[in-house]
Amino acid sequence: MLRYLTRKSRLKRQNYRPWQVKLLSWVGIFLLSLLSISYFAPPAHSVPFTRRFQTNDKGDIVFVSNTVMTCPSSRPNCASAQAGTAGTSNQNNAFSMVYVDVDSDASTFNSSRANLNLPAGSTVLWAGLYWSGDSSNATRSQVRLATPTSGGYTNITASSLYSGTGYQNAYEGFANVTSLLQAGGNGTYTVANVLSTPNSANRWAGWSIVVVYRNLNEQARNLSVYDGLEVVSGSGQVNILVSGFITPPVGAVNVKLGAIVYDGDRGSGAA
Fold first, then answer.
1. What is the number of alpha carbons within 13 Å of residue 212 lying toward its C-beta?
2. pLDDT tens string 204-235
3. HSE (CB half, 13 Å, CA atoms) of 5?
4. pLDDT at 252
5. If exposure means fewest CB atoms within 10 Å of the residue's CB, which of 91, 160, 226, 229 is most exposed?
6. 3-state secondary structure 27-82
7. Are 146 and 189 in contact (CB under 8 A)?
8. With contact defined as beta carbons under 8 Å apart, do 185 and 179 qualify?
């Protein structure tokens, strides 16, 4: 399952060009964690990718991401699996996964942190928080977010919740957190209570904040965020059609792609 982001540069005029992007099952750009997407049945349905945000400006797009599940530290090969040196068979299918909880806060059952480091002179234009796990519990639509200036957690409720992929109880939540990132600025962000199914094999949970920013020292670009939900299995591939972004009228089109990918297993063809 993945979300998808593209951005363009060297703008001269509007020129809308549909573009079909073939995303292979091993795509791992901005991979959230060492988790498993291994071979499974096709989804019951997918969520088509649509444009969530777009602007023409000098700037760029960055991700702030982390996992909230890991292997038990007491298990053999856990440390080497985390380091990526334990071989292809040692991924989350081989462990009863447990929650990560770094905040020493009794009110959270999992949490992890990551840092935002925008260049000097940057302004946050838009920010979206995405999270995913394996659960059918109704509270999966709620997480908590702490910013460098919030002095504690803010409760976040998904404005969009995607599920029904046909793969276990996979889901993904989305919330617009632009105002929180604009107030928070650079520093450490903590996300907590991303619901999944701990103490079971082949489970995952993670989060990512997509940040679109303006910086007058950078190149002019068409900054676009598209999101949806697709399941990619094994060595298969998925074609995703996106349109409505702006390209230069002549010359080369310089593209940067970022994708949020959950549950990709090393060595399975799905990572």
1. 25
2. 899 999 999 999 999 999 999 999 888 877 66
3. 23
4. 85
5. 160
6. CCCCECCCCCCCCCCCCCCCEEEEEEEEEEEEEEEEEEEEECEECCCCCCCHHHHH
7. yes
8. no
Of the candidates 172, 162, 99, which has an alpha carbon nearest to the alpha carbon of residue 129?
A: 172
CA 84, CA 266: separation in Å to the nearest integer?
9
Q: Is the dihedral of CA 44, 48, 53, 58 positive or negative?
A: positive
pLDDT, tens digit, for every residue of 156-197?
Answer: 999 999 876 667 788 999 999 999 999 999 999 999 999 998
Q: What tokens were used for 39? A: 């071979």
Q: If you average pLDDT over residues 44-67, what whole number do you get?
A: 90
Expressed as residue numbers, the domain containing 9 is 2-261
Q: What is the mean pLDDT of residues 20-24?
A: 28
261: its two tokens: 């990918």
268: in domain: no
Residue 172, in any domain of the structure: yes
Task: Tell me the HSE value of 44 on the side-chain side, using a 13 A CA sphere.
Answer: 10
The reply to whether 22 falls in a domain is: yes
**Which of these ranges, 2-16, 44-58, 114-128, 220-234, has the smallest mean pLDDT?**
2-16
- Pairwise CA distance, residues 112 & 190, whole Å: 6
Q: Are 163 and 171 in contact (CB under 8 A)?
A: yes
pLDDT at 25 exceeding the cut of 50? no
- pLDDT score at 268: 57
Is 266 among the domain residues? no
Q: How many CB atoms lie within 10 A of CB 112?
A: 24
Longest dimension (CA), the chain: 58
